[in-house]
Amino acid sequence: MVERLSLKDLTAASSDRLFTFETTAEVPPLEGIIGQDRAANALAFGLRMTDEGYNIYLMGITGTGRNSYTKSIVAERAKEQPTPSDWCYVYDFDQPDSPLALAFTPGAGGQFKEQIESFVARIRDDIPKAFESDEFRNLRNEAVQQFQSQTMAVLEKLSGLAKAQQLLFKPTGKGYVTIPTLDGQPLNEQRLQELDAATLEGINKRIQSYQKEAEPLFEELGSLEREVQEKLQALERKAGASIVFPLLESIRKKFEANQEAQKYLSNLEQDIYRHLRHFYPDDGQQDEDRAAAMRAQNKEGWDIKYKVNLFVDNGQVQGAPVVFETNASYYNMFGMIEFQPSMGTLITNLTKVKAGSLHRANGGYLIVQAEDLFSNAHSWKALKRAVKNKQVRVENVPDGSSGVITGLRPQPIPLDVKVILIGSYDIYMLLYRYDEDFRKLFKIKVDFETEMTREDENILKMAAFISRHCRDRGLHNFHRAAVAAVIDYSSRLAGNQSKLSTRFNDIVELLAEANSWASLEGATLVEERHITKTLSEKRYRADKYEQKIHELFADGTYLMDVQGVAVGQINGLAVLNMGDYSFGKPARITVNTFTGKKGVINIEKEAQLSGRIHNKGVLIIGGYLGAKFAQKFPLTLTATLCFEQSYDGVDGDSASSAELYALLSSLADVPLKQGIAVTGSVNQKGEIQPIGGVNEKIEGFYRLCQKQGLTGEQGVLIPVQNKRQLMLHSEVLEAVKAGNFHIYAVRTIEEGIEALTGMPAGERDSTGEYTEGSIFRLVEKKLAAFHQQALDEE
């Protein structure tokens, strides 16, 4: 039998009875999160696991607090862990295109950079001064003078040998030449061509004789050149070392435990000694502007390799780093090598190597939004590669540039990071099914609930949550009645009397807006009326489309009867979702039946306006008819079923019971009450099944009836299973309390058809006939007539 629901069935019992406080000022603020025990345990386990592949995928709808909770829990755990190394990139003197990665204890990387910068500045000033000292100049001049004296002696010998062979020995800017002479006069190319063969042969013999005698002297010149260069280099090295060695020795002592840094310092020292000529002071003969330009060019050309790139600085990090990447582009994640144009070429150097969030999270945690990650090309593949290989390399992705690029390949850095992806269930399932690497690398699934049980413990925790939010955001305190209203709103969000929503973003919005309304009227405490005002204003801001639809009902554009009776016509209920606002919209459903063999025709399907689930619902109706009325003869009918004035398409099976009621009404020629709207799906056995959006559907029909005039006979027929989901608006509750509107719960088609017609559905008696005067008796009689008519026409 149909159940008329009482007022207590239509909403949850007030939680005010649990409260021993008057305002949230008396409530200790909540610690932790509510209603996410499973997720919290999974996250804690995933954070504890250090084995390979135990990265975390955290899923749940937006607004459940998943982001804030994850960040807070990870941050707390990170405080207990060691702070990872600093990383610096330095010049590799053996492989100039592959900067070396040096690890330092936290904070020491910055110190190393400062020490090297100070060192380079000192030697840039002090080495030229050493080269300008009197001692260095005297020793250098002495070596040069000795070389010049020895060279002159050799040159005089060479000149004498040449003269003896009637040759002229002449120094040039590029070396030395010997020129043949005739009668004491040097011969040029033209005169040589004019000489006879005998004379030329004599000249060639003299040249050959000279070259043989002069060869040891030329070797002696080369030896003298090498000796003076070695002496000068030794002098320069000694002068340079007097500056470089003590400065570097001080740095070595500061970083004596870092073997890689020690190797770098040794290579740095040797490179400086090899390039001491860079430190020579200007000779004063150049124009000042030209000298400045050359110094700048000189600095970029050689001094850049003495720079230190503080790539990752953990000097100010307490514990392990926690990086929340909000824009997971490839370069944000993995860093990049910057370039600058130079004479038609793109050039770079080790100082242009920039870190990404993965480098900054190394040794700690990287939290990334999955949707952001997958919306950026290359990011996902690069992340998998880095996590699998346990190292991360900075390398630019191809960008299609046609320019000439002088590139670098920085040494990769060892990677030890826990990656936490935050995303949707759909993304998780796609990855799990189609990406084998994902299954290996992300073994922990953390699934955030959208609702929790409405039990005393959680209600009190919700009050504590409100208390904490008021404290953290500086809101007015909430009265106990306001807290109870917020908790009821949470159940409305969950769509269930026995549940509370964990969509805390929506609840936080309610708190903030209620606080604003309280402040506007000068109140220092948020009362229940402020919650009511907030919800009313939220609805007003969003319900424009709903009001437009009601206007169309009111002016007769949309045809809808909410009083009286009609055959083959019923009011179904749908829910329209406008994004931030959902509301119920009544829909007239009509059915015509007549003789034929096409069965139940779904007009929406024929017009290509019906979805698959709605099509299934209509087929189920055919199955129900066959089971109930085609045991003695086959069904011989044509029935057209239509959602009137529906132009946007229909889907879902929540109207299948209403369609069946209209079909039975048409066959029995018995009118249905138009003041009772219907929602609920039906199975082939005639059992009514639950649907979604029950509150919005009831409220939508109520508002239509209220605008057209309540009669006290109107109401909504819902599946009995939806009773626990009722959290109706106060206006509906007041109408039900006054007896102006009613909610009925049904279990079967039989119960529903009786409520809609006032007639018994009917049962088969001992003869197999349905009860006389019942709906089913009339239906079967009509179907028998259709069958007989079909037989007569054959």
Output the keywords:
elongated, 5-stranded parallel sheet, single chain, 794 residues, alpha/beta, Helicase, Ruva Protein, domain 3, 8-stranded mixed sheet, 48% helix, 17% strand
Question: How would you sum up this structure, described in words?
Answer:
There is one protein chain. An 8-stranded mixed β-sheet has the order 1-34-33-30-25-26-28-27. A 5-stranded parallel β-sheet has the order 9-14-18-2-19. It has a 3-stranded antiparallel β-sheet with strand order 4-3-8, covered by helices on one side. By secondary structure, the protein is of the alpha/beta class. Helices cover 48% and strands 17% of the residues. The protein has 4 domains: 102 residues, Orthogonal Bundle (Helicase, Ruva Protein, domain 3), CATH 1.10.8; 181 residues, P-loop containing nucleotide triphosphate hydrolases (Rossmann fold, 3-Layer(aba) Sandwich), CATH 3.40.50.300; 165 residues, no CATH class; 227 residues, Ribosomal Protein S5, domain 2, CATH 3.30.230.10. Helix 4 runs antiparallel to helix 6, helix 16 packs parallel to helix 18 and helix 21 packs across helix 22. About 3% of the residues have low confidence.
